[in-house]
User: What shape does this take?
Amino acid sequence: MEYNIALLRGDGIGPEIVDSAVAVLEKTASKFGHSFRFTPYLIGGSAIDAVGVPLPPETVEGCLASDSVLLGAVGGPKWDSLPGDKRPEKALLGIREALGLYTNLRPAKLCPALRAASPLKDSVIGSGFDLMIVRELTGGIYFGERGFRKGKYGQEAFDTEAYSVTEIERIGRVAFETAMKRRRRVCSVDKANVLESSRLWRKTMHALAEEYPGVQYSDMFVDNAAMQLIRAPSQFDVIVTSNMFGDILSDEASQLTGSIGMLPSASLGSTKRGMYEPIHGSAPDIAGTGRANPAATILSAAMMLRWSFGLSGEADCIEAAVDKVLEAGFRTADLMGADSGTPLTCNEFTNMIIEVL
Ligand code: NAD
Assistant: This one.
């Protein structure tokens, strides 16, 4: 099969890590007899430099015409003084909106070889954890009514959290379907003891749970969820939650795994096309030094194969290759911790993965 992949390399370490993922995808294609056609488009600061805007129309058109999108990261000090709507990061919201990506999947899995890099105690980690946060991406307080008004204490600012049954059902279904392919447990996180929008969220999730009798369903208040994630992360399989709660909890969960350079993500909508990217930013402090860890982007590419192209065997193979390289003791600089020895560069680490593949 031939698949068309739009490449958004972006800024900072973006080009290095995307090129690593492309090399791994090319190896996977030759191993399994597929053809991946890559088309690069401008995004972020490099797009501002080249054509004056962070998200050129050709980029949106190219992504819409592709089978899927692989993104590095955008942003950097060079563009930090630009006004909010002209900054590289603005392109992220724009491309998500243009592609109708309302789901954000963020897996947080402890790689056994990186156990010592987790900030959790060995006794808390136990036999490890493997959870998936399903975050609603285009609704809630980040997109609600906002502004300034005169309040009880004078001038005040406000943001509004609003969720419709349709939006809750849509993300809920993604969570239940995801759980069906995993360990069949869904925990819905809300603040239904305080918020009206959370009460509708909970009521809607309960109704949906009836349709999935094979999935073990539970609710949890967000404050408790923040605590449980560091107290006993292995209790979770799939966590489904709103845009803001998901934003916060997924960053918390990512840290449990040890390094930001390891974690992939997928943004999905109602078509097979998704956008896949590492959860980290453009790391301008290490751009061009060869110190970037490409694993998060390579694992994002594996998610693309699984979620957008239905190539689960190929995705498993890439994930296993990353695990094997780590198990053999190879590390990029961010994973070294107190270990002595010389870290591998981004290219050397990528080549090890390709060799294992
Ligand atoms: P960051 O994630 O870029 O970097 C945080 C720290 O982690 C840095 O020390 C960096 O060197 C390190 N790091 C990140 N990824 C790494 C990797 N793959 N390998 C090794 N080390 C890695 O976050 P930041 O410094 O807050 O932001 C830098 C820029 O990235 C900003 O302009 C910010 O707006 C942007 N940003 C973009 C995205 C995105 O494109 N999705 C996300 C977050 C931040």
